[in-house]
Design goal:
The complex is a heterodimer. Chain A is α+β, with helices and mostly antiparallel strands. Chain A folds into two domains: 4-49 and 124-166, Alpha-Beta Plaits; 52-116, no CATH class. Chain A is built from five helices and four strands. Chain B has 15 helices and no strands. Chain B has helices at residues 14-26, 30-57, 71-96, 106-128, 153-184, 189-199, 206-239, 251-277, 286-316, 320-331, 335-347, 355-358, 361-388, 403-423, 432-437. Chain B starts with 13 loop residues before the first helix and ends in a 21-residue tail after the last helix. The chains are: A alpha+beta, B mainly alpha.
């Protein structure tokens, strides 16, 4: 893990303006950790597109096809004619289609969430425990000492309560 | 409303929320252990012993016989499925409508859904008599060519309940990930290891919050129609039979409204107990009871209307079998139970018109329990009265539950309580991050002058 300049802020708007300045200064990998979702952060850091909706959509479509195939396939493979009714009875099979569509949609949404949020964490990442309580934390990965000093300066000017260096010392 | 303050009299801050909720996980008093031991003991003695007795001696140990072949096991099944309804459904609806008052109570309501579903699923096994063949209900090919019949509402049930259980479990888990991370940072020993696994490395970055927000909303959108379908399908177990008083098209909405009604009453009961036992007076306030009371009032009126329509359609059908079933329900052997149900579910909830009643917690608790007693009676009557009066008089008969069945009902309540008691020590029962969202930024006075934690308008 490269060295990160980490600034702790008491208020979300201060952290947000610090993050904006860092992005403007060319630190595009800046992250903001917070105890609650921060309004407006997507506009500043630009991570507002995710593939989750596609996972949900295709999960539902796949599940619905699977559900109908399961019911219809069972009826065709193991014939059980009843009272002259069709073998593939669409209205009741649509209920299985519907349930399976929702089930696979839910499962695909969860998979989509984990993939797009890059969870579970497989390697060490920057983390500040105060971010789960009451601090708004801006982290900036730096590749050399000069970058670190520049990022530290921006964080300090933005009224960070505390600045830490986390990761391998440069 | 009284100001929200922490123990030293200062306005409540973000850190206070973490402290209060994590304290509820880690600090366990003697009363908790006594309650858990009692509930677990009752589950063993009242649920598992009678069930094993029934397995050993056969289904004859239960009071079921011709014509009352369904009995209390199916009534229990519908009751627990019904109780499961409000938690996740209400949570999803309130999430999509952005209601702030949901935030302190939804986690426990969702847990109620989960455990009610689990208890309901055990009743399928209790009812079938030979639970070791339960896998026959699953769609897989085998040498006996025994494939499930996908035209049957019973198989719809298997699919719908399995989907609802999966969806509810995932929904409660996804919403808890940030709180698991907060608990991870402030616990030690086995709890710490458990929360490390459950939080999956959550850090609360902007990207993680964004993805969680979308995934959670999609899940809510998927679960709402699913919840409606689950109880509609349970109603078709009955409505698609040709039994008088059951074969009615109104059954699906009737069951869905009844389920949300009993589930909402269940939430009131759970909120009261949680507020008292976990010292959550700061978070679960009169506003929650007031809003839930309004919801209960609306649901009771809908439920009453549907009951009147059910009686009317029976009478308007003009068939002698329907008329006999109707007469038997209103004035027959089980009439006392019917009027008790009307008293508890249609008349008593009219008290909720009064704001003073809705914000009085003990009366709300008593009413919520009364509603669920009434709703259990409703489920029992659906099963018992209709099968007792089918078409031919020589097929008429009465059903009275045996001691084994009554004991298993009591045991199922104890099982639910046991599961819930275990839940409150593993899951943060109030959502920390969502409560914080309602508080504004840290450092501000909370609540700000002239504002309330849970605005009444939402």
């Amino acid at each position: 893990m490269a060295e990160n300049a980490v600034g702790l802020f008491a208020r979300p708007e201060l952290a947000l303006s610090a993050a904006e300045e860092l992005v403007d200064a060319g630190f595009t990998a800046t992250e903001l950790m917070s105890p609650v979702p921060v309004e407006g952060v997507e506009e500043v850091l630009g991570r507002n597109k995710s593939a989750i909706k596609r996972f949900t959509f295709f999960g539902c479509i796949f599940g619905a096809c699977f559900g109908f195939s399961l019911a219809a396939g069972t009826a065709v493979l193991y014939l059980h004619p009843t009272g002259g009714r069709p073998i593939i009875t669409v209205p009741p099979f649509l209920i299985i289609t519907y349930e399976m569509g929702i089930l696979f949609g839910i499962l695909a949404t969860v998979i989509g969430f984990f993939i797009s949020a890059r969870l579970p964490a497989m390697s060490d990442r920057v983390y500040v425990p105060e971010a789960s309580v009451d601090k708004f934390v801006v982290t900036v990965p730096c590749s050399n000492r000069e970058e670190f000093d520049r990022a530290e300066g921006i964080l300090r000017n933005a009224d960070a309560e505390e600045i830490r260096a986390i990761g391998e010392v440069l | 409303m009284q100001a929200k303050v922490n123990p030293v009299g200062e306005p409540l801050q973000y850190a206070d929320v973490n402290r209060d909720v994590i304290r509820s996980l880690t600090q366990t008093g003697r009363r908790y252990y006594i309650a858990l031991a009692t509930a677990f003991g009752l589950t063993i003695v009242c649920f598992f012993f009678p069930w094993f007795y029934q397995l050993y001696y056969g289904l004859g140990a239960a009071g079921m016989n011709h014509p009352g072949v369904w009995g209390t096991y199916l009534a229990n099944f519908i009751f627990w499925i019904g109780l499961s309804h409000s938690g996740t459904l209400l949570s999803c609806v309130l999430h999509l409508t952005n209601s702030t008052w949901r935030k302190a109570m939804y986690r426990s309501a969702e847990a109620m859904t989960l455990f009610s579903l689990m208890v309901a699923a055990t009743f399928v096994m209790v009812h079938v008599g030979r639970p070791w063949f339960i896998h026959w209900a699953l769609p897989y090919s085998n040498q006996m060519e025994l494939w499930p019949n996908f035209r049957s509402p019973l198989l719809f049930d298997v699919m719908a309940i399995a989907t609802y259980l999966t969806g509810s479990s995932i929904f409660i888990y996804m919403g808890s990930i940030p709180d698991f991370a907060a608990a991870r940072d402030r616990t030690a020993g086995w709890r710490h290891h458990m929360y490390v696994l459950l939080s999956m490395g959550w850090r609360g970055t902007d990207k993680e919050w964004h993805r969680l927000g979308w995934a959670y909303t999609f899940l809510a959108v998927l679960i709402i129609p699913l919840a409606v379908s689950v109880h509609s399908i349970v109603s078709w177990d009955f409505a698609m039979s040709l039994v008088p008083a059951l074969h009615q098209t109104i059954f699906a909405p009737y069951f869905v409204v009844g389920a949300i009604y009993s589930g909402t009453a269940g939430i009131v009961t759970v909120m009261f107990v949680l507020r008292k036992s976990m010292n959550f007076e700061q978070y679960i306030t009169e506003v929650h009871f007031d809003n839930l009371g309004k919801l209960l009032l609306a649901l009771s009126l809908m439920w009453t209307y549907i009951n009147i329509v059910e009686l009317f359609t029976g009478w308007y059908s003009g068939t002698s079998a329907e008329h006999e079933a109707l007469k038997f329900k209103l004035f027959g052997y089980y009439a006392l139970l019917y009027w008790e149900m009307i008293l508890f579910c249609a008349v008593a909830p009219l008290l909720l018109i009064s704001t003073r009643f809705r914000t009085s917690l003990v009366p709300m608790l008593i009413l919520s329990i009364a509603i669920n007693i009434g709703m259990y009676t409703e489920r029992f009557l659906i099963v018992a009265t209709s099968l007792s009066r089918q078409y031919l008089p020589d097929a008429w008969g009465l059903y009275v539950p045996s001691l084994v069945e009554i004991s298993i009902l009591v045991g199922s309540l104890a099982m639910f309580v046991t599961l819930f008691l275990l839940f409150v020590k593993i899951f943060p029962s109030v959502s920390m991050y969502e409560v914080k969202e309602t508080m504004g930024a840290p450092g501000r006075e909370f609540p700000e002058k002239g504002t309330e934690l849970w605005p009444k308008t939402q």
